[in-house]
Specification:
20% of the residues lie in helices and 35% in strands. With 691 residues, the chain is α+β, with helices and mostly antiparallel strands. It has 3 domains: 3-97, Up-down Bundle (Four Helix Bundle (Hemerythrin (Met), subunit A)); 117-324, no CATH class; 350-613, YVTN repeat-like/Quinoprotein amine dehydrogenase (Methylamine Dehydrogenase, Chain H). The strands form 11 sheets. The protein has a 6-stranded antiparallel beta sheet with strand order 4-5-9-8-7-6, sandwiched between helices. Helix 1 (38-46) runs parallel beside helix 3 and helix 2 (53-67) runs antiparallel to helix 3 (74-97). The longest helix has 24 residues, at 74-97. The protein is elongated and about 105 Å long. The N and C termini lie far apart (82 Å).
Length: 691
Amino acid sequence: MDLFTIVTARADYELGALVIIDQTQLPEREVYLALKTPEEIWEAIYLLKVRGAPAIGVAAAYGISVCMQKVDEVGDFYREFARVKNYLASLETYRYGAGQIENVRKRKQEFARLFGDKLDEEWQALLKGEWGKGTLSYDASRKQEEGIVVVHVKAGSLARGLLEKMLKSYASKSGTSEISLYRSFALDKDKKVSYFKMPVPDFAGVMWGYVLGGIATNYVLVEDNYVVFASSERGLQAFASDYMRRLSVREQEWYQKLRTKLSSKFNWMYLSEMVSMLPYYEQVTKGTLRELLERNKEGMEVFSSLGLQWVCEGDMLYHTLFLSTEEVEQKQAQIMWQTRLDARMSMKPAIVVNHNTGERELFVQDEGNTIYLINDVGRILWKLPIEGKINSEVYQVDMFKNGKLQYLFSTPSHLYLIDRNGNYLPRFPLAFKSSCEQGISVADYENNKNYRVFAPGVDHHVYLYELSGNFVKGWDVPKSDNDIVSKIYHFRVDGKDYLVYADQYRLYILDRKGKERVKVSTLLNLSGNTPLYLTRQDGQMKIAFSDINGEIVLVDFRGRVERVKGEKMVGGGILNVEDINSDGQDEFVYSRKDMLCVYDVQGKLLLEKCWENAELSFPYVYRFSARDSRIGVMDGKGERLFLLDMKDVSKGFPIRGNSPFSIAFGDKGNAGFYLFAGSDGTHLLKYRVLR
């Protein structure tokens, strides 16, 4: 067609369509579209396929005419005419009223020139229909927000490819070095995150509506199926760091409490934590609204959060405003990071060493029996589903004696040996000859990495494995009279090795070959999972444990037995033995239901703490210095963590948590320490706590 005969819009009544030229294809191509419904016409105007006020007016008029051809009755004609007219007018009324139509048209033309002429089509194909916008800070003098825009796409890999194609086109047309548009930063020593520098600051607002405007799109990251635009590198890197650790707004307490009050289905939603956002609202508002906020500033601070929601159902638009006064718990310890697992954590975090860097890492398991290795900044390095719950310590061993460490542990059915990359070593997992309900223990008699792995079986036998998975030759395979109720302990006393374990009624003390070294004739009455301790009492080494009645039993290495009965010691408690008060003599730390007690060797009560309706865990003891030891317990019912010395609960405690916790100290010996624990359902948290 000759240039002078191009028709922008015409009505084709035989076809029953509005025929327009697609102006987004000009000048490279001449493409005509046949539009038969109000929705198609509305979309064409929205996507700027018809441009300019005269052309839009003509197209809308022709469109109404075409859409009315099938209406016969006068009353129906009028109602349909009004509906179509109002429908087609809605978009342009808004966009002209907002003063944005011309800017959008010009910017989209500029984008097409810089990045390629099919941007709209390519992005539309990728979009999933969900956007998010977050404000991190606001500069009132420049009226600029720092924040992020998150776009949900169907395929992150295709979105990344589209961005790369756009930047390649831009570099070619602008004479910019393509490599200068690629950026990266180290999330940690093992993980780099790559992203792009965007050459335009308004991409999201122009492409998908100015509700996403205000946030400069200076940088862009693709992670999973999300495209994230940010106004600053700092903001983008912070988002990436939080996202890699599965930390998001949905994990915040104020959000969780507010979200339950709002509809699960919505077209648009705004959520805000009020206290920190009030200064922002005062900066961005003006007139009567600003005066209202300033006048009622103190009164507004009673609200913990704000929710605003639009929900479209049928022909109705529902608008909900929700202000919450529910108090949000003030954090008493600083959360350094939190990493979301697939399920609730099922064990005390094991602090392990990265043999490559010397840095600490975390080894954990969740209730779905998946194990994880997590680095010290909260990134999951790998995860691996296994069969069963870990019932032993996680031992780091050097199987090949080359300085590279592996993880050795057990479930009731199998022995596991896994390298740092999450790979099984040959022959592993190894099925036990008899189920090992008490868990394995490991001894290295000469510290020469010739490890011995003890596995007490439900068949009453104690099996001994080499790290290769073979049985140790010369081992006598001792057998107990009854069900074994402890793991196997290796104690060295006066240069001699003792292997000690217990069944329901007897204590067994063996030598390295599995033969009885000391005979204990006194009958006992023990419950399952009884821990045994080597303790010094009155200058003599003894084995200490608690019986089913709550009494503390002491056995020396001649087989003599004595009992200690302390005040408020009853059955069902859990015993630990440590020198808590730094007097050179071990104390007995005893927890039962809601009560924690500490006794001396005579059974005198030194400390008593009670938390009503609590369900206390095993009382771990943490040593901060030669003269500073503290007791740590979890209240499983209230999901609280307590740390206390012989006087009182430590400053900043209790803190929230739903697992026993581990403690590590900074490399430079500062006044604080780090605490790792499960919390908030499926999270692993790292706290920094000031002493």
